[in-house]
Write a structure and sequence with these properties.
The complex is a heterodimer of chains A (254) and B (204). Chain A is of the alpha/beta class and 254 residues long. Chain A has helices spanning 32-41, 63-72, 86-94, 104-108, 111-120, 155-165, 186-195, 209-219, 228-231, 246-253; strands at 5-13, 16-21, 24-30, 47-51, 77-80, 99-102, 125-133, 140-144, 149-150, 169-174, 200-203, 223-226, 232-233, 238-239. In chain A, helix 3 (86-94) packs parallel to helix 5. In chain B, 53% of the residues are buried. Classes of the chains: A alpha/beta (254), B alpha/beta (204).
Chain lengths: 254, 204
């Protein structure tokens, strides 16, 4: 049987690994390659690596860094950050990533998803959607550039469009829950799940393995991604890379 | 020596790293004539069917592969699209495949998948090693392997089915015909199980 995926999500900023809170205050937590080595030993289901500087600084993906990460990864790797062309996406797949994640460039030109999919296969195209609760009327706004630019896209229109194209996966990243470790925004996921049939990975809010268990028991097959949970330990957030082992994971998948 | 074929598709380096750590002689090969140096070949693949076939044709690898695999019986392991190209063709594209194993690549029928997500079939799934083949020696079937695909290989003959998995029904997750083998999943991204599979292939 297919299992849900429990996915560490790593943010790269100034070549180091960082963790943010509500997309702000990046705190240095270590060296990316070192983290990948530890996650190899822990046999993680998958890894998401997002370069949070690339789009913000309007620069292309750092291929050298991606290569060194992909060479090390013994698990599937999804890379995102600064991809704006088919050529870049193809190159990143050839360096050994399984999936490429788009955000701003897909929202800016939705056709890019299909253009990339035609070459690398639609299953390897991921769109990361950063969302924030609307302050007054309810619902959600979509943001790009690390939560600094509001997108014109309506969340449901975007999901419907992506479903039609048939991309591989969407990552729903909650800006409100990011780094807060108070649990996932389950009502957000519920409405997204209802709107589409493609794989969803949820990011933002996981504070304990119980949060992951709750998400999986509610949605059966889903990607449960987390940043803080897998890089911090204890209430003072001491940096410690961790991940449940094979035995500890078994009850979470049920 | 294991020759890992580099034609601009797939996790060539990840496979090379695994063989390096296993201390097994291997080389990344991209020129058709270089393939002759290998005792065994690995054909990786990530991508769309036609794009993959076209790369094999344009690089001259297709003809060389036919010569080595069909006439010289060099063992080969295809991965993901590297498996899919071993059949007659695919629902995903128009180009004919290599035609080494009788079968066609089909798209999963969404209506048969009674839960969400539907497609792609993506993540870790268990396998059933139906032939008790030595390629799976020591493999933890319940831990399984990593998959990411929407198309699967449908064998004309059950004899060619090496392993099956379940996703909205049973499908073929590995195929073989004597010295020709292929996995729909990605052993290069499947931790210890994957490492074992590559080791077993080298020791066949």
């Amino acid at each position: 049987m297919l299992r849900s995926r429990i996915i560490p999500s790593l943010l790269i900023h100034n070549k180091g690994l960082v963790k943010t809170v509500n997309f702000k205050n990046p705190k240095y937590v270590g060296d990316p390659i070192n983290a990948v080595k530890i996650f190899n030993e822990k046999e993680v289901d998958e890894l998401i690596v997002l370069d949070i500087d690339a789009t913000r600084n309007n620069r292309p993906p750092n291929l050298e860094m991606i290569k060194s990460l992909a060479d090390e990864c013994r698990m599937p790797l999804c890379y995102g950050g600064g991809i704006t062309t088919v050529e870049q996406a193809v190159k990143i797949i050839s360096l050994g990533a399984e999936k490429i994640a788009l955000s701003y460039s897909a929202l800016n030109n939705i056709n890019l998803c299909q253009e990339i999919g035609d070459i690398i296969g639609n299953q390897s195209v991921v769109v990361v959607i950063d969302v924030k609760k609307k302050k007054i009327f309810g619902g959600y706004d979509i943001y790009t550039h690390n939560g600094t630019q509001k997108s014109k896209w309506n969340l449901f229109d975007l999901i419907t469009e992506l479903e039609e194209i048939g991309i591989g996966e969407i990552v729903i990243n909650s800006i409100d829950q990011d780094g807060v470790m108070q649990g996932y925004d389950l009502s957000l996921i519920e409405i997204v799940r209802e709107k589409c049939s493609m794989p969803i990975t949820v990011l933002g809010g996981a504070g304990s393995l119980m949060d992951i268990k709750e998400l999986i028991s509610k949605f059966k097959i889903i990607g449960a991604a987390a940043g803080s949970l897998f890089v911090f330990k204890g209430k003072y957030k001491a940096v410690l890379i961790s991940y449940p082992n094979r035995e500890e994971r078994k009850p979470l998948y049920k | 020596m294991i020759g890992i074929i580099d034609y601009g598709s797939g996790n060539v380096q990840a496979i090379a790293t695994i063989y390096k750590n296993l201390n097994i002689k291997h080389q990344v090969l991209s020129k058709p004539e270089d393939l002759e140096k290998a005792d065994k070949l690995v054909l990786p693949g990530v991508g769309a069917f036609d794009a993959t076939m076209q790369q094999l044709i344009d690089s001259g690898l297709k003809d060389k592969l036919n010569e080595l695999v069909i006439h010289k019986k060099i063992p080969i392991l295809g991965i993901c699209v590297g498996l899919q190209v071993m059949g007659y063709g695919s629902d995903e594209g128009d180009l004919p495949g290599l035609g080494w194993i009788a079968g066609k690549v089909k798209k999963f029928d969404k209506s048969q998948i009674e839960f969400k997500p539907k497609l792609p079939h993506m993540g870790w799934n268990t396998i059933k090693d139906v032939q008790n083949h030595c390629l799976f020696k020591g493999v933890d079937h319940d831990f399984g392997f990593y998959f990411v695909h929407s198309f699967y290989f449908e064998c004309e003959s059950r004899e060619n089915i090496l392993a099956t998995s379940n996703y909205g029904g049973e499908f073929t997750s590995a195929i073989y015909s004597e010295h020709i083998m292929g996995t729909q999943f990605h052993p290069e991204k499947s931790h210890r199980n994957g490492v074992l599979l590559f080791k077993n292939f080298a020791q066949l």
